[in-house]
Amino acid sequence: VYPGSIDAAGQRATLGVLGGGQLGRMFVHAAQRLGYFTAVLEPDAQSPAGLVSHHHIQTNYDDPAGLAQLAHLCQAITTEFENVPAQALQTLAQTRPVAPSAAVVGIAQNRIEEKAHFAACAAVSGVTCAPYAVVETTAQLQAVQAGRADLLPGILKTARMGYDGKGQVRVKTTDELAAAWAELGSVACVLEKMLPLTAECSVLVARGWDGQVVSFAPQRNVHVNGILAVTHAYEGNMPAALADRARDAAVSIAQHIGYVGVLCVEFFVVEDGTEHGGLVVNEMAPRPHNSGHYTLDACDASQFDLQVHTMAGLPLPQPRQHSPAIMLNLLGDVWFDTSGHLQEPDWHSVLSLPGTHLHLYGKVEARPGRKMGHLTITGPDVASVQTVAYRVAGLLS
Ligand code: ADP
Ligand code: MG
């Protein structure tokens, strides 16, 4: 899809996205910068991406007429959130290039299939996931209770629809496990052994239709209450050997399924001396990821630029990070003062600090736990970025 082109019928080269959240918004911005028109399919009238797109098709994700309109408007289509019905991508793929494919999105949507994929490429990737067992039936639950004491304490996670720590219960005993499974609705789950994490990191990979692969260096992530809070993106954010292993593993995980698009692979770093060799693969997201937002301000090509390039069949530049960066997520909590009253954060003070880049997603209402925006701090060296990050955190707390 040639950027900025207009066909004989006068139609502009248009890229489409299923989903209207903040990832879709930043995708739209990247596509528009290259001269593309954009179309967003999203039921919400006030969505972050719908508000900034040339076209907003306001239907459900699986609405046949909405999908037909999206295919009609666009030369290529992507997705921005992983719980989009894989069937919708399948339908679109009948007439348009869709990246990532319904098949890989389907794998990433189901922890059971996702772990099977990680196991299938373990020999090449050199990483395994945490020890786990599938709990889909009462018989499986009983078998795990009887024979998998090694998985306790553990985390019971729903196979589908989990995000930001939702759909997870921590369990210490077999009784707690049974109660947790009931609490989660007795749906398909995995019980994962609780690992002693020393850190978490993630790697963004972009792979084109022709198999060309580029990647970003691993970023180190700090989660609070299961939600990403801070991303550290600079040299020395983790031991170099571990970073190399994570990056290579993520690339092989993308290659092994013939992935096309931007993929984020999340890893746990565990205490040394375990059987895992220090690195464990956790999950993958078939799209740009919150932990890659710093690439907008700290790299010469962002994860959203690469998403556009992959789907449109443009060459993939190997991105270069030109500044150390720290990204702070801005949850709705920041909009409330200590007595619980709504109060606009002190952006004036924040933006007077050097190297602060504020991104707000245009969400109408701030709610605790809701991702309202993020703030990236860049600077000439790690120490000055850290200093500013502490001051920003102080202003926003
Ligand atoms: P989500 O889909 O909600 O991101 P994750 O599986 O990534 O779910 O879990 C969210 C967070 O919970 C992780 O980032 C990590 O901090 C913690 N966590 C998840 N699984 C484990 C585990 N097996 N051992 C220790 N901590 C874990
Ligand atoms: Mg996660």
Summarize, please.
With 397 residues, the protein is an alpha+beta fold.
How many extended strands?
A: 17
Report the major sheet. 9 strands, antiparallel
Strand content: 15-25%
Cα(first) to Cα(last) distance is 45 Å
CATH superfamily caption of the largest domain: ATP-grasp fold, B domain
CATH architecture of the largest domain: 2-Layer Sandwich
Overall average residue pLDDT: 95
Number of domains: 3
- At CATH level 3, the topology of the largest domain is D-amino Acid Aminotransferase, Chain A, domain 1
Ligand roster: adenosine-5'-diphosphate, magnesium ion
EC number: 6.3.4.18
Binding site for ATP: 111, 157, 162-168, 192-195, 200, 223, 282-283
InterPro entries: ATP-grasp, ATP-grasp_carboxylate-amine, ATP_grasp_subdomain_1, PreATP-grasp_dom_sf, PurK, PurK_C, PurT/PurK_preATP-grasp, Rudment_hybrid_motif
Catalytic activity: 5-amino-1-(5-phospho-beta-D-ribosyl)imidazole + hydrogencarbonate + ATP = 5-carboxyamino-1-(5-phospho-D-ribosyl)imidazole + ADP + phosphate + 2 H(+)
Walk me through the structure:
By secondary structure, the chain is an alpha+beta fold. The model has no long low-confidence stretch (mean pLDDT about 95). The strands form 3 sheets. Strands 9, 10, 11, 12, 13, 14, 15, 16 and 17 form a 9-stranded antiparallel β-sheet that branches. The protein is globular. The longest helix has 17 residues. A hairpin with a 2-residue loop joins β11 and β12. The protein has 3 domains: about 80 residues, Rossmann fold; about 60 residues, 2-Layer Sandwich (Dna Ligase, domain 1), CATH 3.30.1490; about 200 residues, 2-Layer Sandwich (D-amino Acid Aminotransferase, Chain A, domain 1), CATH 3.30.470. Bound molecules: adenosine-5'-diphosphate and magnesium ion. Adenosine-5'-diphosphate binds next to β6, β8, β9 and β14.
